[in-house]
Amino acid sequence: MAVLEKTDLTGVVAEILFCRDSAASIVSEDATVNAPGETGEVFVSLEGLPGDTHAGLTRPSCVRVKDLYPEGTEIRNTRQITVVSQEELAIIADKLGIDTLPPAWLGANLMLSGIPHLTLLPPSSRLQFSSGLTLVVDLENMPCIYPARVIDEHHPGKGSKFVTKAKHLRGFTAWVERPGTVKAGDTVAVHVPGQAGYPHR
């Protein structure tokens, strides 16, 4: 029996980005610029997006898992890809009182449209793209001060509200279960686990 249930939801890829070095700047850039040919297709391997700062099969542990490991411990990399929602970014922008919030300012890798409440997809949900590329949802990406600083550079005084206004709207991190290509306009099918919520949080 299948454990994952295919939903009726279909998303569309709006933007594909990568971040060269998050230690230098969280801001990501168009990943299709150096894509081979004129298709704009980007290959995503089992390590993630080529050249992205978060690519790799393993990573050093960070503050996200500080209660589990000493910082810098080598662990499985389940935060290879950062996914955000075009609709949710518009909501954040409205809450901040700015016209638009580009996904690049959040260091995002993929911006999708058409999937309601994208950030709230349960962990272990699968996003399957037209090519067969499949991502596994890891954890909600909590708002932090780094995008706030970028927002302040463009809209002084507005970034300080990001951490509270973007809660449950900032997308999630994910890892690659099946490699494949992705390009703007590709469709994305959503599969969710049927497991009930854990009663002892």
TrEMBL record:
It holds the Pfam family MOSC. It comes from Pacificispira spongiicola. Gene3D superfamilies: PK beta-barrel domain-like. It comes from the Bacteria. InterPro entries: MoCF_Sase_C, MOSC_domain, Pyrv_Knase-like_insert_dom_sf. Residues 30-191 form the MOSC domain. This is MOSC domain-containing protein. GO terms for molecular function: catalytic activity; molybdenum ion binding; pyridoxal phosphate binding. PANTHER family: METAL-SULFUR CLUSTER BIOSYNTHESIS PROTEINS YUAD-RELATED, MOSC DOMAIN-CONTAINING PROTEIN.
